[in-house]
Design a protein that fits this description.
Strand order of the largest sheet: 1-2
Strand content: under 5%
Oligomer: single chain
CATH topology: Growth Hormone, Chain: A
Distance between the termini: 19 Å
Largest sheet: 2 strands, parallel
Shape: globular
Order of helices and strands: EHHHHHHHHHHEHHHHHHHH
Number of domains: 1
Structural class: mainly alpha
Length: 459
């Protein structure tokens, strides 16, 4: 919606305040959160070989531990996404971080693989809510100009967490085992909980909740921090038109984007988690020594950063749909080449390019998703879209474990395993090109009716 004389929308106020010190501080705070989240998820993949050895379990049983984490994330994403559209972003985020910090730490002391699976489920329940909320919060404080680029930059902190996870695994697991690795990530999450106390509630959420005076007070504080004039006009916002339910993601004007996002999130997650959960084991099967495996994984983590930055540049040049679609197709191609390559140099080159494009695709997807939903259902939309990736995450480790086991014990080939992930990337790319609605330079909507009208104009 647009405001008239003497009034302004929250989007207009944020656009006038611009990107400044507050948004940079928010980026740092959300970025630290994203580092801890990434490390918490990926450290389990690095720990799995040691967990298998300590508990004397099969790859399929180890896959169940990873699956428990994603099952918890699925429930958490759906639960916390919807709840946070009722209680607010700030409260929801604090509760989710507390959950994954406490139970992530407890998982480092699990006495059996069954207890580890239970504790990882509860850890995942917290993680599942923290991830979509982080992007909803950051998006709602950003001006329209370069919003997509800034959201991709936030996603790039995932690579920092990956680098941290790979580095800690390299240092800790060979000498001390997997338990200190999981404990280190949980302790970082407790630090995140303390840091997040300084971030205010989203003024967009306050405005559509009938608390415009509180929203204006927060915007005045942001303007002062950025060194810009405070907004003087009266804030106006659309009113909520109904309860926050998943059915509202399927109303005309929004359902096309919901269908595209659900398929894209599922496809990229199936491929990504299928590959990276078993990546250390895949390198080992290709003849890499334990030291070279950790070194190669660390190099792949470094390759993710330029992948993100290239996507951040392109997303404002060629748009969200083109960037995501192209990066997904490239991810599929280089995953297939990774499966067919031979020799250390070619294997490492193909895997680096696979990592580059797949993480750039994640960045574009995380940036695009909150732009496609209005404020009143943004956290719900992010939660349910990311929930599709958790469904994929439930199946990917088990499926990868079964296929990996067949490839290593029954004379099979890693080609069959990696080709499945390659196809998943490519299917996601095709769907993005067919159904995606471009949002470059479009203001965020606050209500479902506003969003439907804007999408109708685009299509």
């Amino acid at each position: 919606m647009s405001a008239g004389n003497g009034t302004m929308t929250v989007q207009e106020a944020i656009d006038r305040i611009g990107f400044g010190r507050f948004q940079k501080r928010l980026l740092a705070v959300c970025g630290v959160t994203w580092v801890a989240d990434s490390a918490e998820i990926l450290m389990l993949g690095f720990a799995l070989p040691s967990i298998i050895a300590e508990f004397a379990i099969s790859p399929a049983q180890a896959g169940l531990i990873a699956t428990a984490t994603f099952a918890g994330m699925l429930v958490g994403a759906w639960f916390w996404g919807t709840v946070s559209d009722y209680i607010g972003r700030r409260t929801g985020f604090q509760l989710t971080v507390l959950t994954f910090a406490v139970f992530g730490l407890l998982s480092a002391f699990a006495p059996s693989w069954e207890w580890l699976a239970v504790l990882r489920f509860i850890t995942g329940f917290g993680l599942g809510g923290a991830l979509p909320l982080d992007f909803s919060v950051y998006a709602e404080f950003l001006p329209s100009e370069n919003r997509g680029r800034n959201l991709v930059i936030l996603e790039s902190f995932w690579a920092v967490g990956t680098i941290l996870a790979a580095g800690l695994a390299w240092l800790l697991v060979p000498s001390f085992g997997w338990r200190p690795l999981l404990a280190a990530s949980a302790l970082a999450a407790l630090l995140v909980l303390w840091i997040r106390k300084s971030i205010p509630e989203s003024p967009r959420f306050l405005a559509i909740s009938g608390r415009a005076d509180e929203a204006k007070e927060i915007l005045t504080g942001i303007a002062a921090e950025n060194g810009r004039p405070a907004p003087e006009q009266t804030l106006v916002a659309g009113e909520r038109q109904g309860g926050v339910t998943v059915t509202r993601l399927w109303v005309p004007g929004i359902r096309r984007s919901t269908l595209m996002l659900w398929i894209a999130w599922f496809c990229v997650a199936l491929a990504y988690y299928g590959i990276f959960t078993w990546l250390p084991s895949t390198f080992a099967e290709q003849g890499f020594s334990p030291l070279r495996t950790y070194q190669s994984t660390f190099i792949l983590a470094l390759a993710q950063l330029p992948g993100y930055f290239s996507a951040a540049y392109l997303i404002e040049r060629i748009g969200r749909r083109n960037t995501l679609g192209l990066y997904l197709l490239a991810s599929g191609v280089f995953t297939f080449l990774f499966a067919t390559a031979s020799g250390f140099g070619w294997i490492l080159t193909a895997s680096i390019l696979m990592s580059f494009f797949s993480l750039g695709a994640w960045g574009a997807l995380y940036a695009w998703t909150p732009e496609l939903y209005p404020t009143e259902i943004r956290a719900t939309g992010m939660g349910w879209a990311s929930g599709m990736s958790r469904i994929a995450g439930v199946f990917a480790p088990i499926l990868g474990g079964i296929l990996f086991g067949l490839a290593t014990t029954a004379g099979g080939s890693l080609l069959y395993v990696l080709s499945l992930w390659s196809a998943s990337f490519i299917v996601g790319g095709i769907v993005v090109f067919l159904l995606g609605v471009e949002t470059k330079r479009r203001a965020l909507s606050d209500t479902v009716s506003d969003s439907s009208e804007e999408v109708a104009k685009e299509v």
